[in-house]
From TrEMBL:
This is Glycoside hydrolase. One of its GO terms (molecular function) is hydrolase activity. Residues 377-467 form the Putative collagen-binding domain. Coiled coil: none annotated. It holds the Pfam family Collagen_bind_2. Residues 40-374 form the Apiosidase-like catalytic domain. It comes from the Bacteria. Keywords: Hydrolase.
Length: 469
């Protein structure tokens, strides 16, 4: 009996060490993060050595304040394994924020007065402060090939008058001095707010960040149903656009005027794509998986993996340079002892990281990076006949010697075959749920041809038609 338990114990310990070794090897074998740049055509991101960078983000908004070191590692390991390369995080959710170790970020809630201590020893509370913990997260992310997109101060605090221009300039100087040497930083000005609400603060923050830290990319995270380009497209500090398509379904959208887009997040891409000069754009906050439709009624239907895939493929195929996924419990890092859970959250972050949609996002990134990248353009002229509306709409994009057409419902796709070069076209179906390809066959490259997607026509039976010459 004792011998049996000894054998089991040894095997369990060996398995544990093997998993740790595998995780360490995974981190060690990653390519080091590189500075990010805008591609010459102004549409996409690239690394310093000229390779394509497809932004696959996750919203870990409260990562800095709610997770301890071991939890941070668990989260980052999981996101790295699932293919995410950017985590969007609030530096200051509020000016009174306190982290999981009980450390406050600011003295008296003043952004111009960060609280720092000598040293950064995590085993000595007197030496390990709020900003040391932020440093730890940034470094751990870099070791895993992940960029941290940091929102300096959330928009609601500026709207409430808790931050002024003089304070934010001093705060931006502190941030850039501390983090400009970290390669994996991206700055997100704003924070779920219209640019007109506190615009002097946003301009001062954007200009100071860009002047003091020109080596890192910078944008503005806007209010739902808005895009950064509305207010700041022509500002030199805004290097790429981000929009928030929001969490409401078609019949819940109460937006006014030109931005009454409902769930059609591709329309923001289309709008930004037409602006000059060309700047990358993408959906930085679509509907989160497991959050109630419309946000505020916990009895409402909840967005699921089908929905987050749809938002992703629609926006990217329309010309987006990436996509940010979100999950209700993960974005607020909800924990068992929390009393401030929002939006009807019913589970905890460490379980929600395995929601179906989170594992499916990497397939989009892999698909886009498997083709020629910088020459890709949206091209609805590939579609013969009616492109459809709402859930039935088809989306086409193409690059050198290939075309991709997405259907959310699995409807039949009619294609103008002669849009690509070559005498014959190889066709296959790509499954956004598992990333697998199914060959259809080779076809003469002329005329119009119909391709019938597998399965029944219904929302969530989504497929990508892949055509290669």
């Amino acid at each position: 009996m004792y011998k049996f338990f000894s054998i089991v114990l040894i095997a369990a310990l060996a398995a544990g060490f093997r998993k740790k070794d595998e995780a360490s090897a995974m981190v060690a074998n990653l390519q080091p993060v590189q500075p990010l740049k805008i591609a010459p055509n102004g549409r996409y991101f690239m690394t310093a050595d000229g390779k394509p960078f497809f932004w696959l983000g996750d919203t870990g908004w409260l990562l800095f304040s709610k997770l301890k070191r071991e939890e941070v590692i668990k989260f980052l390991d999981d996101r790295q394994a699932k293919g995410f390369n950017v985590i969007q995080v609030m530096v200051l959710h509020t000016t009174k924020v306190v982290n999981a170790y009980g450390d406050t970020a600011l003295k008296g809630g003043n952004v111009a007065m960060p609280v720092t201590t000598p040293g950064n020893n995590p085993d000595n509370a007197a030496e390990y402060d709020y900003w040391d913990h932020v440093d730890f997260v940034v470094k751990a992310a870099a070791e895993r090939g992940i960029y941290i997109a940091m929102v300096p101060v959330w928009g609601s605090e500026v709207k409430a008058g808790k931050v002024n221009v003089a304070q934010v300039k001093q705060y931006a100087n502190f941030l850039t001095s501390r983090y400009k040497s970290h390669i994996n930083i991206i700055w997100l000005n704003g924070g779920d707010i219209k640019g007109t609400e506190g615009i002097a603060v946003w301009q001062a923050l954007g200009k100071t960040l860009h002047k003091k830290d020109p080596g890192h990319l910078l944008t503005f995270h806007p209010r739902g149903r808005h895009t950064s380009s509305i207010w700041f497209h022509n500002e030199p500090w805004l290097q790429f656009n981000m929009f928030q398509s929001g969490h409401r379904r078609y019949n819940q959208d109460t937006s006014k005027g030109d931005l009454h887009f409902g769930e059609d997040n591709w329309k923001y891409v289309e709008m930004d794509y037409a602006r000059k000069p060309a700047k990358p754009t993408f959906d930085g906050e679509p509907s989160y998986e497991e959050i109630p439709q419309g946000l505020h009624d916990s009895l409402e239907v909840r967005w699921n993996d089908n929905d987050v895939r749809r938002y992703a493929y629609w926006s990217v195929f329309a010309g987006g340079c990436g996509y940010t996924y979100g999950n209700n419990a993960v974005m607020q890092m909800h924990r068992p002892h929390d009393t401030d859970g929002n939006y009807g959250v019913t589970n905890y972050w460490y379980d929600a990281i395995d929601a179906p949609g989170a594992s499916q996002m990497v397939h989009l990134k892999d698909l886009m990076l498997s083709k020629s990248y910088f020459d890709r353009v949206p091209d609805q002229s590939l579609i013969a006949g009616n492109v459809g509306e709402k859930y039935d709409r088809l989306f086409a994009t193409r690059g050198k010697n290939y075309a991709l057409i997405y259907t959310y419902t699995g409807r039949t796709i009619s294609v103008k075959m002669d849009k690509l070069s070559g005498k014959s076209i190889k066709a296959s179906w790509f499954n956004p749920r598992d990333g697998k390809y199914t060959s259809i066959g080779d076809f003469e490259n002329k005329g119009t041809r119909e391709f019938d997607a597998p399965g029944d026509v219904k929302p969530g039976n989504d497929w990508v038609l892949v055509l290669s010459s």
